[in-house]
Write a structure and sequence with these properties.
- The structure is a single chain.
- The protein is α/β, with parallel strands linked by helices.
- It folds into 2 domains: 196 residues, inorganic pyrophosphatase (n-terminal core), CATH 3.90.1640; 120 residues, Roll (Diaminopimelate Epimerase, Chain A, domain 1).
- The chain is built from 11 helices and 11 strands.
- The strands form 2 sheets. Strands 6-7-8-9-11-10 form a 6-stranded mixed beta sheet, sandwiched between helices. Strands 2-1-3-4-5 form a 5-stranded parallel beta sheet.
- Helix 2 links the parallel strand 1 and strand 2.
- It is elongated, with a radius of gyration of 22 Å.
- The relative contact order is 0.09.
- The structure holds manganese (II) ion.
- Manganese (II) ion binds next to loops.
- Manganese (II) ion (MN) binds next to loops.
């Protein structure tokens, strides 16, 4: 729950400043943009005379834009950011903030659900137990002034919660997550509209998925699935950005570890995404110039022989863990 002290200080700061600037992280997801747009719309309705800006929207690449958010190409004037109260959402890492212009703000506030790194703002509310920044903003706004939480604001908040919890599948979902969502639904949150904005696919995406499945190899005995995407496949299926497609191989019965190799045209090299249902795999990604979380990691292929090598390492590892291999793998 948002503390009384934080809420009091936060409201005091908002009231004090004529200009409010909201900041999100680079490669923003629905949680980052959802929390930013929800806060902006709530504040605009409550304080029509204040200038409430989201800073950095023009930097979002065309291919990753979603019409759910109204992204302007015109950037906020530096003069409006200077002397403003800046609010950073969904990242505790300075370097990840989409624009360095947060430094122009007179005072800063951070609201986030990632592990705390180092305090760099005047006030902060960081709680890594929350599954989404949108749940934090929802709690804050509902406690502050429920009447001012519009249907539009509830849509933004719901979008961030649904995506950051992977449709409530992640174990990080709290009892309070359902309570907050219940409040948003009572307000009139348009769930179908939000789901459509998030989950609607292009026909090309589906055909691309078909290609990935066709190219995939499944070793059910060991529990390994892998795919190597061709260099030209993105172009052929009109896919606008490099996507490892590793999730296409997720949630398959008997498959414990799955990975994909893909060519990153920006980095001009072969890379891989590695996932596991329960066995830690990040030590193997580390061996191949990568790393990451225990069950989700990335790696790089620097020499051609490493394609085979990493597959052999994974086979050996699965064999050792299961202890059922006799000879050939
Ligand atoms: Mn988030």
């Amino acid at each position: 729950m948002v503390s009384k002290e934080f809420l009091k200080t936060f409201i005091k700061k908002i009231k004090k400043y004529k200009n409010i600037s909201i900041f999100f992280h680079e490669l923003p997801d629905f949680d980052a943009l959802g929390s930013s747009f929800a806060l902006q719309n709530f504040l605009m309705k409550k304080y029509p005379k204040k200038a409430i800006n989201i800073v950095g929207l023009s930097l979002i690449k065309k291919q990753s834009r979603n019409s759910f958010f109204s992204l302007k190409n015109k950037e906020v004037d530096d003069n409006e950011i200077k002397n403003s109260f800046g609010i950073i959402l969904d990242t505790p890492i300075k370097e990840r903030i989409a624009t360095v212009k947060y430094q122009l703000c007179h005072e800063l506030c951070l609201i986030d659900h990632h592990p705390k790194i180092k305090t760099f703002t005047n006030i902060e509310w960081i709680d890594e137990k929350y599954p989404a920044a949108c749940q934090m903003i929802a709690e804050l706004l509902l406690k502050w002034d429920r009447k001012n939480v519009s249907i539009l604001v509830s849509n933004y908040l719901y979008a961030g919660i649904v995506t950051d919890t992977n449709r409530f599948l992640y174990p990080a979902v709290l009892p309070s997550t359902y309570q907050i969502v219940s409040e948003l639904v009572k307000i009139g949150c348009q769930r179908q509209k939000v789901h459509q904005a998030i989950y609607t696919k292009e026909v090309n995406d589906l055909l691309f998925q078909k290609y990935v499945i066709k190219k995939a190899h499944f070793n059910q005995k060991l529990g390994l699935a892998w795919v190597k995407l061709g260099k030209k496949c993105y172009h052929r299926y009109k896919i606008k950005y490099c996507n490892s497609m590793v999730n296409t191989l997720a949630n398959i019965n008997k498959i414990k570890v799955w990975l994909s190799f893909y060519y990153d045209f920006d980095a001009k090299q072969w890379k891989g995404s590695l996932r596991s249902a329960s066995l830690p795999i990040n030590h193997i990604a580390k061996k191949y110039h990568g790393g990451g979380h225990k069950l989700a990691a990335g790696f790089k292929i620097l020499k051609h022989c490493e394609f085979k090598k990493i597959l052999n390492d994974l086979k050996k590892y699965l064999c050792e863990k299961e202890n059922f291999c006799h000879g050939a793998i």
